[in-house]
Structure formats: C-alpha cells, structure tokens
Amino acid sequence: MPHTLLALAVAALFFAIEGALRRGQAATSTTPAPTDRGTTRVLSLTYALTLGAGLGLSRLGVGRLPRQPIASLGLLAMAAGLGLRVWAMRTLGPAYTRTLRVEADQRLVRSGPYRCIRHPGYLASLLVWVGFGVALANWLLSVSSAAALVWAYRRRMAAEERMLEAALGDAYRVYVRQTARLVPGLY
User: Fold this and answer.
1) Domain 2-178 belongs to what architecture?
2) Rounded to an integer, what distance in angstroms lies between the CA atom of residue 157 and that of residue 35?
3) CA 17 to CA 125: how far, in whole Å?
C-alpha cells in the first residue's frame, strides 16, 4: 500500500508541475492549433486511462506482480521522469506549450537535455507513466500504458517534427540529424 500511495503522490506531482511551470498564454492554453492534430487530447485521455486503470487493476488484483523490488524500481523511474520533465520544461521556458504550436519568433533550443534528445519531455512522461504501472507492481498496466503512450507520443512527435521543420527549415533538419528522438543510440 505505501508504494501505491507514493505512486499516486508522484502522479499528482506530475500534474501539479505541468501547471506550475508553464509560463505565458501560449504555454497554458488548452485550445489546440491545427498543427496539434488532436495529439493533446489523445495524450490527456491516455494519462487519465492509465491512472484509472491503475487504480482499478490494483483494486481487482489483475496483473499483479510481487511488490519488491519491482515497486521501488517503478518509483525510481517516476522520480527520474519528473526530474527530466522539470529540466526540459525549464530549458524551454515559455516555448514549452501544452498544445503543439509555433510562435512568430520561434527559435530552436539546443541546450539542456535538448542537446542530445529532441523530445526529453516525452521521454520523461513515458518514464513517469510506465513507472506508475511498475510502482503499482502490475505487469498488465505497465505493458498497456507503455503501448498506449508509445503510440500517442509517436503520433505527437511526428506532428511536432513536421510543424518545426516547416517553421525552422534547414536548422531543424540539421538538428534532427544530430540528435535522437528519445534515446540516444536507439531511437
């Protein structure tokens, strides 16, 4: 039970950080631009389903794994994900928006975690939400949330990269060749 409460607390912290670190109207807006392609809605739904399924599966005991050391590894993944998410958000500042959009003065950020990863915030979210399933010691939740989030984030990254290439041109194309999408050396 303590791991479940800690996992829920970290999930709540994820949402609190989302609100607290977004600066400016564009960053906090939930009205998607056409470039968003519905990805914000898909991700919000995926987070909600992961949270709800985690609580439901835990209560029913479906997909349960032995708690130790599995649950502790999940909590570590969640903490690492939160740390990376904060770093990514602080690096982008007001350009870290909830929905996909570009501003007239859009610039390419290549500092902080963006030096080697194009989408560190998305990697961070994957760590948090897959870690949530692991922290609840539930293999079914871990696998299903990983599959749903990978699908949703692949869609989001494709839309975002099209948008940024159109806005930033050759500078973004060079950046794509020099960085990994999520994990250097793998993807």
Assistant:
1) Up-down Bundle (1.20)
2) 11
3) 12
The answer on pLDDT for 157 being more than 90 is: yes
Q: Which single residue is written with the structure tokens 């709540």?
A: 12
Which residues in 51-68 are b (16+ Cβ under 10 Å) and which e?
Answer: bebbeebbeeeebebeee
Distance CA 132, CA 61 (A): 16
In this model, does residue 174 exceed pLDDT 90? yes
Eight-class DSSP state of 97? -
Using CA atoms, how far residue 174 sits from 69, 115, 179, in Å, is: 42, 13, 9
Q: Which residue has the tokens 């871990």?
A: 142
138 forms beta bridges with 64
Of 187, 56, 50, 63, the C-alpha closest to 131 is 50
The domain segmentation of the chain, as residue ranges, is 2-178
Cα gap 87→124, rounded to integer Å? 10
Instruction: Tell me the per-residue pLDDT of 65-119, one tens digit each, with 9 for 90 and over.
Output: 877 788 999 999 999 999 999 999 999 988 888 888 888 888 999 999 999 999 9
